[in-house]
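Write out the bound-state structure for iron/sulfur cluster.
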Amino acid sequence: MLHGLRAGFKLRHHRPMQTMFDRIWDRHVVAELGDGWDLLWLDRILLHDLSGGRALRDVAERGLRVPHPARVFATADHAVSSAPGRTEGSFPRGGALVRSLREECARQGITMFDLGTGGQGIVHVIAPEQAIVLPGVVLACGDSHTCTNGGVGALAFGIGASELAQALATQCLPQKRPGTFRIRFEGARGPGVTAKDMILHAIHRFGADAGTGMAMEYAGEAVRALSLEQRLTLCNLSIEIGAKIGMVAPDEVTFAYLHGRPYAPKGRDWDAALADWRTLPSDPEARFTRDEVVAMRDVEPQCTWGTSPEHGAAVSGHAPRPEDARDSAQAAAWKAALDYMGLEPGQRLAGTKVDWVFIGSCTNSRIEDLREAAAMLQGRKVAPHVTAWVVPGSEAVKARAEAEGLHATFRDAGFEWREPGCALCVAANGEAVPPGARCVSTSNRNFVGRQGTGARTHLASPATAAASALAGAIADPRA
Amino acid sequence: MTPFRQVSGPAIPWLKPNTDTDVIIPIQDLLRPGREGLGERCFARLRYREDGSENPDFVCNQPPWRGAPILLAGENFGCGSSREGAVWALMGMGVRAVIAPSFGDIFLANCFQNGLLPVRLPMAAIRRLAAHGGGNASVTVDLERQLVIAPDGEAIPFATDPRRREALLDGLDEIALIQRHAAAIEAFRAQSEAERPWQ
Ligand code: SF4
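---
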């Protein structure tokens, strides 16, 4: 009861000088566990095919039931084929995972956005799309890009298999409160600059581990000016800067996006929610553990050259020379990355021949991403030697794009128009970029072997990917 | 969870920064149920050649370090994906402690869930440990005393989160720990649903 009272105090009283992150965290503390640890209440848990079925079975094997199945949602994304006309049988090993997830969800009364129902898609695409994630909620999912959901002003984080089973069994998780790291993007976006370029620039500048032990908040004029979908892209790469959590304060843009979506509050609840959500943003005087400013005049369209998301550069720039590294360890890492990527030290990025282009993934597969790419492709043709795929993030995105005729633009240009899922982002569904092939990808990880054994990945925005598909080589979208 | 107190043995020098969990275990190896055989697939893309034979140049295949219980690593070890299979694969290969300057947050949590001890030390100390290299140089990692003992006897202190340390030493069950708060959880739920029904 004491815990309930303490939590209730925090629910009702608005503390000044708080960050949005701390405010939402405080509202979800069920019990203090000492040493900076809290038992956090989870408003939502999301499941996907790769780990969801197994986690539900783990809970059942302990003789437990999921206590709040209405707070849990599932979909199939990682291990499903993206081939046109696919079924769960198209990739048999994935089909077994999908079936297991479906059976376990049915047993527990959990809603699953199954293949072909109109709602299936990449888990982090469908959560905002269905308004399963809302400002101020705490959400956990067995996937590192759960941070994407912070784009609506939620506190969302990825967990492993053990924590997922604990969350499902109790609707809570013991968590240690992280520090806070704010990046303010000041000034206006230049031509061809998207949220993807902003975050790749920040990762390159601050490093792939700058955010470890931190919750990111992205703020500033350039973030306020982003659409909700672009904010999701921005938060998506928080884990690539090392942070489990990334957030953007909710505002009118957020509210307009969420209004009327399937799981958004309705009627009087909507009005009450709106009043509550307006209290969430960080107070102007709030202090962050770390606070940085990025001047937008320094941010150009980006393209990574190496095998860590921090191996970034302007698409108009060059791969680095190991002799310019800060120390011998970095020089060795750069050299290994250049070797893997088949690039010469100092090589100009634009003009480097590419074999594949992938537009998709939870980073850049929403309707605005597809519009951005299609605008570049209109009436033009993909270079003949390039294999180009576009994989919409969800069945809803796909249907919307088809209603707008975008699929025809992609097909006429020479892209394959495919079925929703993670596809070439992670190559867990039988689809892969071939060994040695170079791919400009709108996904979030350029790790060794990520898109397939020996595949070489350059991360970029949808516009840069589309421009590169047309040129048959890495290309500046402004050119 | 497997409890952890102390481990001694050779320490694999793998000092590269940003070792991601995709490299530790390829996703394709995680499409089947269970953890069996994951040790064989740990670092698969580095450990084996295209024809499936062992790559003799990879450190984990070299005599003093084959099956070694300690891994020395560079910054941001275990960054990337949340796959807990990365921890299962390392443990399956025989690793019980990883020493690095920093770790990916989710990997770090997964380590503690399974009884793999992540130890944070400055890079300079890790380089000193690595310099002892080869032969039968044995490093000890002692969680009770929170010390790493180098082959020359140098004792290097490290800090571990107290809650996690206790859980590792005793091999605690997290679900049972959470369930002790059942009454507080239920009170919280009722109040939260009354105050913010949409949430
Ligand atoms: S699209 Fe890629 S990054 Fe996103 S959830 Fe799927 S595999 Fe993970």
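---
The first strand of chain B starts at residue 6 and ends at 9.
The domain at 6-195 of chain B is CATH 3.20.19.10 (Aconitase; domain 4).
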